Predict the 3D structure of the following.
Amino acid sequence: MKSFFIACLAATSTLAAPLAVPQFGGFPSFGGGFGGGFGGSTKNDVTSGVCKPVTYIFARGTTELGNMGSTVGPALEKALESAFGANNVATQGVTYPADVAGAISGALNPGSAQGARTMASLTQQALSKCPDTKVILAGYSQGAEQVHGALQNLQNGQVAVALTFGDPLQRMPFRNIDFGRTKIYCNLGDGVCAGAFIISAAHLSYATQDATPAAQFAKGVIGNI
């Protein structure tokens, strides 16, 4: 099995697109966005002590640069600022390796994943600094695993909204959050969501197709600020 994963990695290491590796033991496959030469975004409002009515914490896909990546993370940030008002949203990226090895371990045990633990810690930090802030957790591809894991390490009521895109664990129920506060975006034809070793245009289209609907969903749950 180990040699199988090594072979998959070697075969795909030159692709400037997200990587999906077939799962083992019955877990769904995973994928994320390769940097592909595009500069990633970095946002650190929580660690800088910024306090806003809404706190958006995002985990990027595999090998995306910065702590926000360059696709879904920044697109959702812009959409949330449009929905709630730019002055009402604090944005924080999750700093974690976002590598292939982490995606494997994150699929098997999301609650123990490094990014999940960091995301949970950032949530607690935001709530400690700003007790009334509404926390939105979001993640793309491997980053979606971190959302699942972070919620396992938090208490019900700490997170206002959870959003995932191209979610390898889309069949796994979220923990410690009411179902009506969650939304999984898995586009038709996205092999990552279906557990297949396939990266298609469907897996790469969330930033353009789903960021605005996701922000509107969050606005509907949280309400006016």
User: Anything to note?
Assistant: The two ends are 50 Å apart (CA to CA). Residues 1-31 have pLDDT under 50 and may be disordered.
